[in-house]
Amino acid sequence: MKRVISSLLIATALVGSAIQPAAARDHHRHHDNTGRIIAGGVAAGVVGGLIGGAIANNGGPRYVDEPRYVQPAPRCWYEDRDVRNRYDGGYHAETVRVCE
Predict the structure, then answer these.
(1) Going by C-beta distance under 8 Å and a sequence separation of 6 or more, which residues neighbour residue 55?
(2) Residue boundaries of the structural domains of the chain
(3) Nearest alpha carbon to residue 40 among 24, 5, 21, 16
(4) Is 90 left (phi over 0), alpha (psi -120 to 50) or beta?
């Protein structure tokens, strides 16, 4: 990315330096070409922006997630059940989590 930005800055500087001597040369003829120079600079900026944007958008591989099967979570609830008491052999009620 740094290479792209630096090359765009260098290209802009070169275009700007190429336009400036032409403006100085035409100044002796007393023609007002300032509008043409500004239009050329704007056009160069737009073209440079389009090229830079195209280069910047082409960044690296793109990964696509494949659809995969996700097992649904089990349904769970709480029930009161009779549980065998381990000390005296009897039963008592206890809340137990039950899942399908």
Answers:
(1) 4
(2) 74-99
(3) 16
(4) beta
CA distances from 40 to 36, 54, 96 (A): 6, 21, 80
Residue 78 pLDDT greater than 90, yes or no: yes
CB contact burial 63-72 (16+ within 10 A = b; e otherwise): eeeeeeeeee
Alpha-carbon distance 16 to 56, whole Å?
A: 23
Overall pTM > 0.70: no
**In angstroms, rounded to a whole number, what is the distance separating the alpha carbons of residues 94 and 77?**
14
Planar angle of CA 29, 40, 26, nearest 5 degrees:
10
